[in-house]
Amino acid sequence: MPRTHLLTDFELMILLATLRVEAAAYGVEIAREIERTGGRRVLLGAAYAALDRLEQSGLVTSTVGPPTPERGGRAKRFFRVTPRGVHAIKETQQALVALWKDVPQLKEKRA
User: Fold this and answer.
1) Spatial contact of 88 and 59, defined as CB atoms under 8 Å apart
2) Cβ–Cβ under 8 Å, residues 41 and 35
3) Total number of domains in the chain
């Protein structure tokens, strides 16, 4: 059965990091979570470009928070994964697990 929306590796990381940081999910914190947990360096511009694409696809929504003094009076844009986004994460996970399964080169050799 074909999957409806398989994510790229970076989109998957963005969505998972967004879920992990929950209420603090704005671009900088999402990028930090990917770097901290996933060990992948993230350019902020790339993170925001991916978030914009994911929002256009209906996989995340965003809201603008109040202006903050530490940001020079600028507001943060917070992101939330939609139910459709969670579904895309699960579909991608299922596809990847199916591809990994039974690949002889990836199985541990027993001594």
Assistant:
1) yes
2) yes
3) 1
